[in-house]
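Sequence in, structure out. Go.
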Amino acid sequence: MRIGISDLKNAWGRSIEVPLRSDLPEVELGAEKVAFVKPLEGNIRATGADDKILVEVKAGTVAEATCSRCLESFRTPVRLDFEEEYRPGQVTPGREGEEQEDEEGKTFSLYQGDEVDLS
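Output:
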């Protein structure tokens, strides 16, 4: 997912909010399969901070799996809450969203142009 940030670049404190809704594919965790029975839904907030963009994601869904002990199916809520800092830079094709580390050990991702790639 990409979000437009042209209004946020060099705009200290300005924010935009974008709704998030995405169907998730079934995943395999070892020998177990986990299905998501509801779409991932939530909010993305992007805030300008000089040339940096701070992104906060708050979202949730419901996962369904099978208990490995009793073999009963169960559902459980799943939360996805995270923050990421994006800095301008050259993004290598195929490596979008790959974390970088600065000299102080702080991690960040790169953006190029007027979009941040959250995938």
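Check: Residues 14 and 98 are 25 Å apart (CA to CA). Strands lie at 2-4, 15-22, 27-29, 32-36, 40-49, 52-66, 73-88, 100-101, 107-111, 115-117.
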